[in-house]
Design goal:
Strand content: 25-35%
Helix content: 25-40%
Order of helices and strands: EHEHEHEEHEEEEEEHHEEH
Number of strands: 13
Oligomer: single chain
Radius of gyration: 18 Å
CATH class: Alpha Beta
C-alpha cells in the first residue's frame, strides 16, 4: 500500500502576518507545499490529505488544490477549536489553536495507511521524501515503529526572529530517546540558544531537531486520542496551552510503547516563518530549478 502525505496547513501564520501556506514562491506562483507534494509523488506516495480551517476552504481549493488534483488523489479534513472528544467543552475565551498533534488527530477518518506528517510552510527536500517513503513502505502492516527526519539545528534558524523546534536526543542505533518542543530558539552573540522559563540555554550547532517530518502508522491516532484527553484534563482550561507532536512521541518512547528511527538527510531545509524569510526561499527554489532538481513548471 502506498503511504499518504498528511500536510498540516491550518495555521494562521501569526508571526508571518498571513496565510503563508498559500503564498507563492515558485516561478509560477507555486507554494512551498507544492514542492513537497511534487517530491512525495515521485517518491511513491499515493494520496495527499490536508488539514485546514473552514474559514479559508474556498480560497484553498481554488488557489492550491486544483493545481495538482489530477496528479494525485486529494482529501481535506478540518481543524477547529471545538473539535474535542465527547464530554469535553471549549473555554469560550480560547483563541489559540490546540497545536500540531490536535491537527494530526483530524486525519484519523481519512488515513488508514502509513503516513508522513509535514508542515505546509517548510521545505524538506527530495532526499527526505525518498527516505521517509522507503521507511513507511517497510512498516506497512506493522505498529509502534515510527520515524522522523532530523536536521541539524544550525540549518533551521531564521535571521528574522525565534523559531520553534523539537530538540532531539538519539541513541547509538539512531533511535530517538527524547524530543522536547522548544518554542524560542535563535542565535545570540554567535551561539544558538533556546529560552525556558526566562533563562537562555545553549544548543550545540549539530543538535538534531524535528521539523515535523514524521512517519507514523495508523495506530498513532489511537495513542493521540488518549493523550489528548489527558492533556485536556491537565491543561485544557489554559488559554494558550498546545498539544504538540513531540510531547506525544516523547511519552510513547519513555513508556517503551514505540520506537522512532531518526534519519539524517542531505536535503537542505528552509521555510518562511517570517515575511522577511520569503526572498531567501525564492532564491533557493530558483537555484534548485537551475540545478534541474525541479522543473520550471511543476504542474502541466
Amino acid at each position: 500500500m502506498k503511504p499518504t502525505l498528511f500536510v498540516l496547513a491550518a495555521g494562521l501564520g501569526s508571526r508571518y502576518g498571513g496565510l503563508k501556506q498559500m503564498d507563492g514562491i515558485g516561478p509560477n506562483g507555486e507554494t512551498i507545499m507544492e514542492y513537497s507534494i511534487y517530491d512525495a509523488i515521485r517518491s511513491g506516495f499515493g494520496k495527499v490529505v490536508f488539514v485546514i480551517r473552514h474559514s479559508f476552504e474556498k480560497e484553498f481549493n481554488e488557489f492550491v488544490t486544483k493545481r495538482f488534483a489530477n496528479a494525485i488523489p486529494v482529501e481535506i479534513v478540518f481543524q477547529e477549536l471545538d473539535y474535542l472528544p465527547e464530554g469535553y467543552h471549549l473555554n469560550k475565551e480560547r483563541e489559540k489553536p490546540w497545536g500540531t498533534n490536535h491537527a494530526v488527530l483530524m486525519g484519523k477518518g481519512a488515513i488508514r495507511e502509513p503516513f508522513c506528517v509535514i508542515n505546509a510552510d517548510d521545505f524538506y527536500g527530495k532526499e527526505s521524501f525518498e527516505t521517509i517513503s522507503r521507511f513507511l513502505q517497510s512498516v506497512d502492516g506493522k505498529t509502534n515503529q515510527y520515524g522522523m527526519i532530523g536536521y541539524p539545528v544550525c540549518n533551521t534558524l531564521s535571521e528574522s526572529g525565534t523559531v520553534a523546534r523539537g530538540v532531539c536526543e538519539t541513541d547509538a542505533d539512531n533511535c530517538l530517546t527524547t524530543v522536547v518542543e522548544r518554542t524560542q530558539i535563535k542565535r545570540i552573540d554567535g551561539k544558538i540558544r533556546y529560552e525556558e522559563n526566562g533563562e537562555w540555554y545553549e544548543l550545540a550547532e549539530n543538535t538534531p531537531v524535528s521539523m515535523n517530518m514524521w512517519a507514523f502508522t495508523p495506530d498513532y491516532f489511537d495513542y493521540s486520542e488518549e493523550a489528548f484527553k489527558l492533556f485536556l484534563d491537565e491543561r485544557g482550561d489554559e488559554l494558550k496551552s498546545e498539544f504538540y507532536i513531540p510531547s506525544v512521541v516523547n511519552n510513547l518512547i519513555k513508556n517503551k510503547v514505540a520506537t522512532v528511527k531518526v534519519f539524517d538527510t542531505t536535503s537542505q531545509w528552509f521555510g518562511v516563518t517570517y515575511k522577511e524569510d520569503k526572498p531567501v526561499v525564492i532564491e533557493r527554489i530558483n537555484k534548485l530549478i537551475e540545478q534541474k532538481i525541479y522543473p520550471p513548471i511543476l504542474w502541466k
